[in-house]
Amino acid sequence: MAPRAVMVGPPGAGKSTIGRRLASALGVGIVDTDSEVERREGRPIREIFAADGEAAFRRIEEDVVRESLQRSDGVVSLGGGAVLSARTRALLRGHAVVFLDISAHEGLLRTGIAGRLRGHPGKDDETRPLLQGDDPAGRYRELIRERRPLYEEVATLVVHTDRRSPGKVVREIAGLIESTETDAAGHAGGQHGTIGEQHH
Ligand SMILES: Nc1ncnc2c1ncn2[C@@H]1O[C@H](COP(=O)(O)OP(=O)(O)OP(=O)(O)O)[C@@H](O)[C@H]1O
Ligand SMILES: O=C(O)C1=C[C@@H](O)[C@@H](O)[C@H](O)C1
Ligand SMILES: [Mg+2]
C-alpha cells in the first residue's frame, strides 16, 4: 500500500487545502501530518515547540510521517519542514510527491504575515511557531530559499500555485496522477513533471 500523492511545500503553499480537495477528487482519505502530530501528542504544535523545542518536534514528526506513508493509500500532506529530515527524504523516494511551489510574495499573503505586518491580527499567529519573532517576513523568505532544493529533490511533480485557484490546481494534479497510474509502467513515482510558471 502506498499513498496516491504526498504533498510538500512551504507554509501557506496549500498542502492542507489542496491536499483535502485532491483527496476528495480522487475519492480517497487524507492524512495531514501536522494534525496527526497534534492528535498523538494531545497538544498543539506551538506548545510542542515552546515546551520541548524544534528538535523534539522534528523527531515526533519523523515518526508520524514514516507511519503515515506506510499506512495511507490516499493523500498525505506533510508539515512544511518535514523534508529537513534526510531520513524522511529517503523514505519519499519512489512515491508520487507533489511540491506545491509558491513565491515568497504570495506565501506572505497566504500565511497572513503580510497582513500582520500591516497591523491586522492573523488567525495563524499561533500555529506557525517558526514564523513568529521580530522579522517573520525575512524568516519566511529565508526558509523558502533554504528549503526549495529539498522540496525539489523529493518532488516528482512541481506545481506553481501563484495566481492559480485551488480548483484548477487540484484538477491538474488529479489528472496527472490518474494518467500516470494508468501508464503501462504503473509506477506513480516514475513520472516527473512541472505544472505552471515559476514566479520567483
Ligand atoms: N491555490 C491557491 N490560491 C489561493 N489561495 C490558496 C491556494 N491554496 C491555498 N490557499 C489559501 O492559502 C492559505 C494557506 O493554505 P494552507 O493552510 O492549505 O497551506 P499549508 O501549505 O497547509 O500551510 P502550513 O504549512 O502552514 O500548514 C489558506 O487560507 C488557503 O485557503
Ligand atoms: O515550516 C515548518 O517548519 C513548519 C510548518 C508547519 O506545517 C508545522 O509542521 C510546523 O509549524 C513547522
Ligand atoms: Mg497545513
Automatic annotation (TrEMBL):
Region feature Disordered, mapped onto this chain: 180-200
A GO cellular-component term linked to this record: cytosol
Catalyzed reaction equations: shikimate + ATP = 3-phosphoshikimate + ADP + H(+)
Domain of life: Bacteria
Entry binding sites for ATP: 12-17, 128, 164
Top-level enzyme category: transferase
Listed GO biological process terms: amino acid biosynthetic process; aromatic amino acid family biosynthetic process; chorismate biosynthetic process
Its biological purpose: Catalyzes the specific phosphorylation of the 3-hydroxyl group of shikimic acid using ATP as a cosubstrate.
UniProt family annotation: Belongs to the shikimate kinase family.
Record's protein name: Shikimate kinase
Source organism of the structure: Tomitella fengzijianii
